[in-house]
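Good morning,

Attaching, inline, the backbone tokens for the sequence recovery test we're adding to the shared suite. The designed sequence is right after.
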């Protein structure tokens, strides 16, 4: 693998010359517009990384290509991939009700397909729970009807709860933790060595987490979740090198 072009904050020292300076300006604008402490970016030409850039500070130091960031609800895409792999292998059917694979929830009549499409009629969050849900185990990630808003298929309703349930389905079908399945079947084949549920690189913006079925429950100061944050079916840290690797 060719070495990656190293980021520089100096407009006069940019790969690609004027294009590099323009990309750096775009990165500066993105940081200001997003009001974020730091940001990393890259540009690819013909599938190869031609430019990298970083701005700001992470924990008081400038970010590097190895600085990890939480990817939030982009993790839902990874959870969906795992579910569809189970379907392709014949281990589940997306038109089957949730009860088939995860008995004991109040959303058991909603199908796997509806959970994937955010049309299961579930709330974004479990009422009265900080993130993402409460419950003693995989069979009860949705312990009461409070998280059910409407009939399945009635309307689109973005739902972290739905993807928490999908993460629990992956765990139940495969009989192993969601993050282990993710690492083996998605992250490793793609070469995403800096991406995962635990912080793997010193200097990452760390958070503690307590294990929860299909995802993790975020604590002050630590990593996050499955459905909407990647320490679980919804939220893992990713570093700049993996952003570039994923683009290739």
């Amino acid at each position: 693998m060719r070495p990656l072009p190293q980021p520089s904050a100096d407009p006069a020292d940019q790969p690609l010359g004027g294009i590099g300076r323009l990309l750096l300006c775009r990165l500066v604008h993105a940081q200001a517009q997003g009001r974020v402490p730091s940001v990393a970016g890259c540009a690819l030409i013909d599938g190869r990384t031609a430019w990298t850039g970083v701005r700001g500070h992470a924990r008081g130091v400038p970010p590097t290509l190895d600085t990890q960031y939480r990817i939030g609800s982009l993790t839902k895409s990874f959870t969906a991939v795992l579910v569809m792999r189970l379907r392709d292998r014949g281990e589940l059917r997306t038109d089957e009700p949730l009860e088939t694979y995860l008995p004991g929830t109040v959303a058991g009549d909603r199908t796997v397909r509806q959970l994937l499409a955010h049309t299961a009629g579930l709330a974004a969050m479990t009422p009265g729970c900080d993130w993402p849900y409460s419950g003693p185990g995989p069979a009860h990630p949705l312990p009461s009807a409070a998280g059910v808003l409407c009939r399945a298929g009635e309307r689109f309703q973005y739902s972290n709860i739905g993807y928490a349930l999908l993460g629990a389905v992956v765990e139940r079908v495969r009989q192993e933790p969601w993050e282990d399945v993710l690492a083996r079947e998605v992250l490793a084949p793609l070469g995403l060595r800096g991406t995962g549920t635990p912080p793997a690189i010193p200097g990452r913006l760390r958070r503690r987490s307590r294990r929860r079925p299909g995802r993790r429950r975020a604590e002050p100061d630590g990593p996050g979740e499955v459905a909407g944050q990647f320490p679980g079916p919804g939220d893992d840290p990713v570093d700049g090198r993996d952003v570039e690797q994923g683009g290739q």
